[in-house]
Amino acid sequence: LNYATARFMKSAPTLAQCPPDSGAEVAFAGRSNAGKSSAINALTRQKALARTSRTPGRTQLINSFSLMGNEALRLIDLPGYGYAKVPDAVKREWQAHLSDYLYQRQSLRGLVLMMDVRHPLTEFDQLLLGFADERDLPVHILLTKADKLKKGPANASLQKVRHQLVEWEDLVTVQLFSALKKDGLGTLSERLDRWLA
Ligand code: GDP
Predict the structure, then answer these.
(1) ipTM for the whole predicted complex goes beyond 0.95
(2) pLDDT number for residue 65
(3) pLDDT beneath 50: ranges in the chain
(4) Between 3.40.50.300, 2.60.34.10, 3.40.980.10, 3.40.50.2300, what CATH number should domain 3-196 receive?
(5) What is the reported pLDDT for 48?
(6) Is 183 in the pocket of ligand 1 (CB under 6 A)?
(7) Residue 34 CA, closest ligand 1 atom number
(8) pLDDT reported for residue 59
(9) What pLDDT was estimated at residue 97?
């Protein structure tokens, strides 16, 4: 698929306001600042398709993008998570939206989970992996900002994460990724192609 054809469809505050649950879609999730917006922009070769919310506490939206001019083929940008300053009630609300979406969405084919290569498998990451596992949803992990580490340490992080997730190896794949250097786009596209085909 040509991911450069991604076009904004809509922003939805809840699952109920998302596009109709038919066709196929892939969702992107990550802790705030993990590099999710940068990864989506690199994949779609657009400078500002996905934007980071710089306003902690603001209602977070589920953003949908069509592919190839086809609204039945979608990329979904899930709300970022984990601003330290956000009140617990707001965090719980985000978490409820995320779990609703991940559990209920029939058209969801897979989850791309962004983690900073220097701080993988946070509590939030483990929570999402647990949601995915419960419904046998495949997960592809991007270890982002790989350019921040030298090759040796970056590969060591990759191996460590793979090892830690070895019991889920049927469901979970992991790769290094750099939006800055545009490294890892081929592997990511291949994975998405397989899910959306
Ligand atoms: P989001 O909150 O997950 O959407 O994260 P962003 O995409 O907004 O990125 C958070 C910060 O990390 C920004 O300052 C980005 O410039 C930086 N960043 C994102 N991807 C990369 C990358 O591949 N390499 C480097 N060096 N920095 C990155």
Answers:
(1) yes
(2) 96
(3) 57
(4) 3.40.50.300
(5) 86
(6) no
(7) 3
(8) 55
(9) 84
Atom 12 (ligand 1): residue with closest C-alpha?
A: 35
* Closest ligand 1 atom to 50 CA: 4
Pocket test for ligand 1, best of 28, 32, 38 (most atoms within 8 A of CB): 38
Per-residue pLDDT at 124:
87
Q: Whole-model pTM above 0.80? A: yes
Domain ranges within the chain, ordered by starting residue: 3-196
Tell me the residue type at 82: G
